[in-house]
User: What shape does this take?
Amino acid sequence: MTEIALQVVGLVRRVQGVISHTLVDGIDLAVPKGEFLAITGPSGSGKSSLLYLLGLLDAPTEGEIIICGQPTSKLSETERADVRLTKCGFVFQFHFLLPEFTALENVLLPMRAHGVMSAKDMNERAMSLLTSLGLGEQTGKRPNQLSGGQRQRVALARALANRPEIIVADEPTGNLDTASTEQVFGILRDIADRGQTVVVVTHDAALAARADRRIHIVDGKIHETTFRGDHKPEVAAAVGTAE
Amino acid sequence: MATNLLLSIAWTHVTTRVRQTLVGMFGVAMGVGFTIMMAGLMQGSQIDFLRQLVDTMPHVTVDDERRSIPSQPADQEYAAVAMSNVANVNQRPGIKYPDTIMTSLRSWLPGDVAPSVKTTAIIDHGGGRVGVTLTGIDPRLEAHVSKLASQMLEGQLTDLSRAANGIIIGEALAEKLAVKNGNTVLLGSGEETPISATVVGIFRSGLKRVDEGQIYSLIGLAQTIMGQSGIINQLRIRLDDPLIAQKVATRVEAQVGYKSVSWQEANSDLLSAFATRDFIVLTVMGAMLLSSSFATYNIISTITHEKRHDIAIMKSLGMREYSVRRIFILESMMMGSVGILFGWLLGYLLCYAWSLITIFNPLTGATVPLQIYYSPMHYIASGAVAILCCSVAAFFPARKATRVHPVEIIRGAS
Assistant: This one.
């Protein structure tokens, strides 16, 4: 039976203000381990809000998010931070690398924060990640010395540093040229193929079509779900049982 | 969260923002430096004054008085009896059996005791008449209970015995009466006919009121001026440690029954004024350090504002809120620590510079260098308060910045 990496049940996110607004409106979703899920939708549809909820960056108004079998609605902010540190890796449209630190130091950051590996092991892993992403020569450079594509690959390496179960990416290719976009998406595809779960928000329909599954969000609700033609049968089966 | 990581991020922030770091350090250094200078200056002048005071007067004085009027036998015997304003006819001036008391005290006193006769007198010379306090002393014992011998500018204590009716007067009084060593003056109580006395020595204690209003003679002459032969009305005690005077005075009074006054009690109004001054000085120094921490507050506010994206990303990566907050507090403490080191150096140099300045002291009537008290406690206390101020100054902007929801920042950037 396929293991579910990420599951949400009755997820609602409302913002209170002069006018209340529902960003996410009762979404049920199950993402099996190793699936590459693309979330698409028009601007303001709630796809990024859903992503932030899935990555525990934001807390739902209603509903439950279960990450690797662990319900998270009752967790304190500190416990949610611990889950983010160990189980989620984030990639954003803007790389958000720490500007004073080198590529290597940025990749080391989550591992040092986790603090379970020796300094030698952390260095080896960071170097290995950067090399595997084609940045072996750039490890000592600061973000302002790297191209946009290189920065985003460093951000990807940082997201992978603690071997998270889930990679959450918000428009990771939004600011990249075609070649870099292709490169970054290829890396995300590889990550999913190696068994890690990838959830990506994108505007690019062509890229979304390369995901195992695409969900289209409109007004905070899942409007349409599309599976890739050659998607893994066990994924569809798992999703079918969960949704 | 690994402290090394937080330190490393904090260190990177402060070393890549050199101008802001220098401004923060400068603020702390100024606060610490001037605090040390003020503390050294204020405490120096105070200690110098107290030292002169303690050197000039006995540490404990036993007078021929009781602390309270003894009750009458009838009062003690009958509850219904109420007596008031009753003159004690048995009370005679002087301390009874002074030699016995002194022998008894010497058996345990950490110091020495000497008898004296204290009275008031009028000294008359060349038409000038000045009321003074005359203390009759034993020159052989006086060296054990006062620093008078070392304060002599002209003559010696033993010269009192060599001249008929010899007296030792203060330098200020000598100037006032235009008296020189060897001159003859008239000395009287104001009631009897004055007697002729010879100035055999001049001293300078450093305290103007003493140098102007205190003279010394042999016990016999003081008794004559007082009109009470054979009387000893004061025992003066000098201790190895002046700070235990209060404790010793209490014990002496309990033992001998006569009122025993420590130098602290005798100058309680002055010490109280010093305590008030200390409080004011401490408040001013605290305000100086607090003011210097505002520079730190501004800098940390600026850094946290500039670093809001970093804060958001660190929180999104899973760093806890208080860990991120600690980064900025550590930055403030780093700036503060280096600022404190410079402040210590600045404080020392300022103290040294002040010690080169001479001023006229109206209390002593002399022009003396400013007294500076160098104490490690000034450096430790100013450093500790400065680092505390820096931590508190950083805490509030750091808390505000790290409370921001990362999604708000990330959405804003997107």
